[in-house]
Amino acid sequence: MKRNRQFIIWVLTALCLNLDGVMAQERSYEGTITIEPVRLEQLGETIHVDFDIVMDNVKVKSSHGVDFIPQLVSPTVTYDLPRVSIKGKNEYLVYERRLAVMSAKAKKSYKAPYLIEKNQKKKSGVIRYRYTLPYEAWMANARLNVQRDECGCGESTLMNVEYAFDKVTLERMLVPYVVNPYLSYVEPTVEEIKSRDVQAECFLDFEVNKVNIRPEYMNNPQELAKIRAMIDDLKSDANVKVKRLDIIGYASPEGTLEANRRLSEGRAMALR
Q1: Sign of dihedral through CA atoms 74, 79, 84, 89?
Q2: φ, ψ of residue 215 in degrees (nearest 5)
């Protein structure tokens, strides 16, 4: 049985900067941001998570951001709620471009934030976080933490943690119900030709403002070998018919849109 597969190769520009130590120490914004608890309460079958993020003369650096990640934490469960992210100008552009090129499969699994706010000049104000979710028995012993990622590094071990509430205010304890599952057989639809989309990624290193591929440059030997191996596997499998091959190139967000378009298109054509 013949199978059509679509392969997408992502060509990304790797920025070889040693940022690990720097970003863990450097704050991403000026001014002050404080967390003010409002409510952590169970009402019926719903739990309400309310707090305020108070900003005083806050200005986020252009290529940085600060994230606030609420968490319900019990002795047995840690549950992340949608985050609030305040981004500088360039960081916000990166976020928009990431959404624009996200595949349909990635969008289905993407956990949307509570709020993404663009910040490029000093601002004071209040972000009111109001969120509800179904109440579960483990939440009776939960507290509310707010992780604050001030360095933009995404490492939870380096984040500040604020304890907004020590425990949930309970209206009543709900009696857990018992679920009795049953099995049902669903016969799949017969496919005369199996068509699948397969995505592969490689990360090629380019010199600044260059579009030509240097096979010996940095990590390119290993990445080019991955591409060759993938093509060899396709050619050797008689049951696979390649219907389409998309090559998508990218450039870093610095510079003008026209310059980035020229670089990304040129790099994709170089790989082709």
Answers
A1: positive
A2: -60, -30
What is the C-alpha to C-alpha distance for residues 24 and 231, in angstroms, rounded to an integer? 40
pLDDT at 173: 56
CB 93 within 8 A of CB 56: no
Its pTM stands at 0.53
Delineate the domains of the chain, giving CATH numbers in brackets.
Answer: 3-15+205-271 (no CATH), 23-165 (2.60.40)
The DSSP call for residue 241 is E
User: Is the Cβ–Cβ distance between 205 and 217 less than 8 Å?
Assistant: yes
Contact present, 31 and 58 (Cβ < 8 Å): yes
Higher pLDDT, residue 175 or 27: 27
Our measurement of the distance from residue 92's CA atom to the centroid of its chain's CA atoms, rounded to an integer in Å, reads 13
pLDDT for the residue 143: 93
- Cα 272 to Cα 11, 174, 211, 227, 230: the distances in Å are 11, 61, 12, 11, 15
Extended strands (E) in the chain: 3-11, 29-43, 46-60, 65-73, 78-80, 84-87, 115-118, 123-134, 143-149, 160-165, 194-202, 240-249
pLDDT band with cut points at 50, 70 and 90 for residue 161: confident
CA–CA separation, 52 vs 216, rounded Å? 52
**CA 10 to CA 192: how far, in whole Å?**
30
**pLDDT at 224 (0 to 100):** 93
Q: Is 190 exposed, middle or buried (0-12, 13-18, 19+ CB in 10 A)?
A: exposed
